[in-house]
Amino acid sequence: MSDDSRIPRNSENDHTREMAEVRREFIKQKTGADLVHTGQFSIDPAVLPGNIENFIGVVQMPVGVAGPMLVNGEHAKGEFYVPLATTEGTLVASYSRGMRVINECGGVKTTVVEGFMQRAPAFLFKDAREARDFGHWIDENFDNIKATAETTTSVGKLEHIQQWSVSKTKYLRFNYTTGDAAGQNMVGKATLIACEWIKANSPIPCMYMLSGNMDTDKKHSHLNMLHSRGKRVIAEIVLKKDVLARVMKVDTKMLAGASVLANTGAQMAGAAYNGPHSANGIASLYIATGQDEANVVESHAGMLSHELLDNGDLYMSVTLPSLIVATFGGGTGLPTQKECLEMLGCVGKGKAEKFAEIVAATVLAGDISLGCAVIAGHWVSSHDKMGRNRK
User: Fold this and answer.
1) Does the structure show a pLDDT above 70 at 356?
2) N or C, which end of the chain is more exposed by having fewer CB within 10 Å?
3) Could you tell me which of 64, 142, 155, 169 has the C-alpha nearest to residue 115?
4) Is 292 annotated in the active site?
5) Which of 25, 88, 104, 133 is catalytic?
6) Pick the CATH number of 63-114+232-386 from 3.10.20.30, 3.40.50.2300, 3.40.720.10, 3.90.770.10
């Protein structure tokens, strides 16, 4: 690579307005792109080390607010105004419409069932019997492994280790609780130290790779549907027949029938989620609040469930088994992201489960709204009216 093609960097202090301007000028010379709007931002680049490299500016994502939404959670209690960062017209309006239905039906009940973050090393042996016996030794020495792993963190706690034997390999999956951090890096460091202890103390000689890809980092997996990664959160509501008819122009029996069709279609397609669009609300909330946006691929998976009640009302719930969220660390402390978390009362430590409940409630609101729009024929007409920006 020639020197004139290298992106400019300052080894002493690379996160400054001056260096961002130098790089924008470099990109302009190389590509012809004039980064006028990208170069206009209010944040101090000095807060960015640890979040980004080769900083040139800010992509200014539109943020709208949906709500209010009444949440009857164990951690999220009361009315919330939800920030959604999106460029999709009708999205914020649709979520607000779903939230109105939720409010008129008495609010959405939310529950965090459990939460884990994983790192999954693979240990290699000369044959399957060694791998099997090594697994027994892991069980017998769990307390020592746990103590070693937890020397690297004041927050992370190793709860249990799952095992699978394949050929002459033993796949382990270390499951941690991680407080208010998402925790991928935290558990990676803890597991590395634990694996080094295992390698040094195991009576059976072994080699290992820190990730055998069963942690499914940034990937959807059926394993996470059964055993939680991130928070397993459930949002549920009883939709009153008269409210749904008045606000959405939809009968609860029609919505129940449409949900059955949607379940079958999702099953045939092999979809990770059987409801209308969990990823929309999750992605918009994640971008607004400084979450790791790649975690949407895991977090959007789940189950939309329903039951038509004898009185004509409709029970509906969303189960998100791998909702990966944080209110501390990562991008959550950056200025605009922190402001959006402040809107929700979810800044800092002790707020991750509250935030998870708000995310799940938002997903349910969006699914109610879009599901009804499809039935009532408003889906296409709404996008034609509100969602077409062709400038």
Assistant:
1) yes
2) C
3) 155
4) yes
5) 88
6) 3.90.770.10
